[in-house]
Amino acid sequence: MSSATAPMTAPIAPTSVADLNVRRTLVEDLFLKALFNIGEMSLRELGDYLCVKMSVMDELFNKLRKEQLCEVTGMSTGVHRIVSTTAGKSRAQTSLASSQYVGPVPVSLNDYIERVHAQSVRDMDLRHSDVERAFSHLVIEPGMMAQIGTSAVSGRAVFLYGPAGTGKTSIAEAMATVYKTDHVWIPHCIEIDGQVVSIFDPTVHGDVTQPESYELDRRWVLCHRPRVVTGGELTIEMLDLQYNPQTRFYTAPVQMKANNGLLLIDDFGRQRIRPEELLNRWVVPLDRRVDFLTMAGGKKVEMPFDVFVVFATNLEPKDLVDEAFLRRIQTKIHVGVITPEQFHAIFKRVCADNEMPYDPGAIDTVIELITRQFGQPLRPCHPRDLVNQIRWGAKFNGTRAEMDRSSLAQACANYFIET
Q: For residue 165, what are the domain limits?
């Protein structure tokens, strides 16, 4: 798979305030707010905080010093050390009353849109070996592997459905690792009509080793492709720009944070938002790859929707969505119960992970107990859950965890309900 390399794809650092492509007053206010909050700083320290070059800082400093909003207190390694004047503090306080955002200078909406399109999730060069690597820890039949690979190449939405415990979430999470070797640039934040929208989220955007070069635009962070997971907590409000009335700036919605990566809607149908409400909200984005977000004043903003969306559910698709919406989800993958051979293969891996001996005969007994005594089909979750039962029982009894017929029978009795 082709991987984005920093020298070829990295954004180049602007050398002037105009080249930042955001409002000059916004940049000046960030300069003064940072100086007000932190106190005396060198221009280089302030430039590192705002993630801009020294040429930009010199330009800002010369203008704000001329306006008597900051003043020099000394020199540090050939660079001015500065503080706010009384007038500078007053302007900073006025600016903080409008927005408490203080941090890296935002990138423009146009620059963000251009970057998202340039590193689209649809343009990745995926191969069969990439998918096999991502799913090497799971037992997946060849037919399903082909479906997964096809959906990953498409970059379009996929529907994973089937009974509980069949591994839908594990499959969806493994899909994200297909992209693990690929890198994208994520901005700390963007500017929309003078308002700041925070995008970079360290819990979502796993940053990699950053290139050490002042020639690169440090307002962008080099990251693995995003993986955003949301489940029952999802609400309709989470799909729009989140305005915080206390801090007075915005946070990007989940699908925007997932741009150029994967968004998993787990346990689809069990969210606080009704399925039809979510689907109606995303009919256009899934079809046209464009989303429309609403700002606090009601203005609509067009935003790229470059997201590989995975819906995972144990409910019947026909009971959740209509045919028109299913048509927009190009790939539907049924994840069902497994064969005895697959059950053995999974159990063997779980035993190895837990440093427990694998006994094929004991597993045959477990299969007999599950299917006959408890009347249950074999599911991929059973080996892990039963081994956990054995480990917990051994810990309670102060003994060593053993994989034998007796411990497995007790684990089944604890886990299953008799029919």
A: 112-334
